[in-house]
Amino acid sequence: MTQEHRATVRYPSLGELSKGTSASSQSHAEAAGHPCGAESSTMTSPSSARRQLIAASGLLAGLKAAYDAFECLLTAFEDDDDPACSTFAAFVMSAALAADGRDAVAFAPSLPPAALDGRLPAMADGERASANELADLCCDVITLLERAAETASNPGDCVACRNAIRCALGIHVLLTGEP
After folding, report:
1. pTM for this one?
2. Which residues of 100-130 are buried (b: 16+ CB within 10 A; e: fewer)?
3. What are 99-126's pLDDT values in tens digits?
4. Nearest alpha carbon to residue 48 among 117, 126, 140, 111
5. Domains of the chain
């Protein structure tokens, strides 16, 4: 087959896969008007999530803040999913870990489902989180969850915190290359 007869391969984005949609022949980056992935207008600000983690006092507030931070991470990874980006592989693997971390926190016995209202502060249009910002957010999640695991009286809460910590550590390693 000659070079001109080969079809251009375009891989679907994480968002397209999760929504079951596919795009036209235009690349995801071109469609988004961004050189390396989609811009987000609904992504939670990592700085807002970090403030929430720092302000959390008590087990319930800490678990809620950790859940929201994992949601923020997941959204950031899904919104920057262009295969042409150098961070694509790390972001895809980090997205899976962010979802696992969020789910681990959600299964903590002390966190009632009603506490997970899904209302998160949004990032400004065109604002994007850097890998370093997301890694810093992971460090804050780890710190909060370690404190929560040490003080939790319910063994199920300790297990949930430890499982979520492993996920946050995994994301941090993927983003920074450092444990």
Report:
1. 0.72
2. bbbebbbebebbeeeebeeebeebeeeebbe
3. 999 999 999 999 988 777 655 555 545 5
4. 140
5. 30-176 (1.20.1260)
